[in-house]
Amino acid sequence: MSEHLAGRGTVGDPLSPGARALCDAMTAAFPGPGDVAALRAAAAVGGRSAGPEVASVRDAEAGGVPVRVYDPAPGSAGRPLAVFFHGGGWMMCGLATHDATCRSLAAGSGAVVVSADYRLAPEHPWPAAPDDALNVLLWARAQALALGCDPGRVVVAGDSSGGNLAAVTALRAPELVAGQLLVYPPLDAAMATESTAAYGEGHFHTAAHMAWYWEQYGGDPAHPHVSPLRAPDLSGLPRTLLVLADCDPLRDEGLAYARRLGAAGVECAVHLYPGVFHGFLGLPLPAGREALAAAAAWLRATP
């Protein structure tokens, strides 16, 4: 397992000054847990800037699931293909909220990115989202050549709850994926870690929100397709990159998963960014831009 550290916090506050200002502003505008409509409305407003231009962006349907396909170089062949699952506690966000992130990944990597608009809880609890995720992966593999990609270079990717879906999809079909890009994923519904205690309040994403998201999502917390960290065997999983925020209740789950992957013989890298909070990818912060660029480079290098 390799590890990469970037950024630096300030004395007295683990968040950098810029991250603290952004964290406080986002927290003030974000409702507490309990009101699905209010949370969805707040998430739709977002705080992310527009992404780069991509040559072709089109909406399609993948096995009954709406998707958005980002192709930075139509007519190319043999490229990686990333199936991306958005975050949002399995119950909010969608294609629009993560458009800039997907554009950045496509433009930075040269890969085609297929963003999945999977069904949301609580209207569609587990296993609706992971079933949709698997259907999109199967569609992407079948369409890879037509999309100018190598079917042997398909990667699953996602941030937050989407990172959970990417990890679950890789567990369900390891033979179909060449890599998994997991950005601060929730991996164990138990939430029994030091980082949960240390950063569960005052760092935008709270332990109370996460516990409520798990409740809305449903499923047996002990099932590995709910809590991938509880999977009995991680051997055979593909090359992995974990992108983590140091000031995040979910940090230690990601680190524990990385250690287990490494012990199982899986090629695994960890990019841990101090001074930032959960959700920093794509935000107007130096660490967010660096993390996106590094993730795109990792995707581009998919063998």
Give structural notes.
It is globular and about 50 Å long. It has 303 residues and is an alpha/beta fold. It contains nine helices and nine strands. α3 (99-109) packs across α9 (286-300) and α4 packs across α5 (161-172). It starts with a strand and ends with a helix. A nine-stranded mixed β-sheet has the order 1-9-8-7-6-4-5-3-2, with helices on both faces.
Radius of gyration (CA) equals 18 Å
Tally of helical runs: 9
What structural category characterises the helix and strand content?
Answer: alpha/beta
Please summarize the sheet with the most strands: 9 strands, mixed
Which residue ranges are poorly predicted, with pLDDT under 50 across at least 5 consecutive positions? 5-10
The N- to C-terminal Cα distance equals 18 Å
How many beta-strand elements? Answer: 9
Based on Cα principal axes, name the global outline.
globular
Task: Report the β-strand fraction as a percent range.
Answer: 15-25%
Mean pLDDT: 95
Question: Could you give the topology of this structure?
Answer:
Blueprint: E1 2-5, H1 17-29, H2 36-45, E2 56-62, E3 65-71, E4 79-85, H3 99-109, E5 112-116, H4 128-143, E6 149-159, H5 161-172, E7 179-183, H6 194-199, H7 207-217, E8 239-247, H8 251-263, E9 268-277, H9 286-300
Parallel strand pairs: 1-9, 4-5, 4-6, 6-7, 7-8, 8-9
Antiparallel strand pairs: 2-3, 3-5
What descriptors fit this protein?
single chain; 303 residues; alpha/beta
Structure, briefly:
With 303 residues, the protein is of the alpha/beta class.
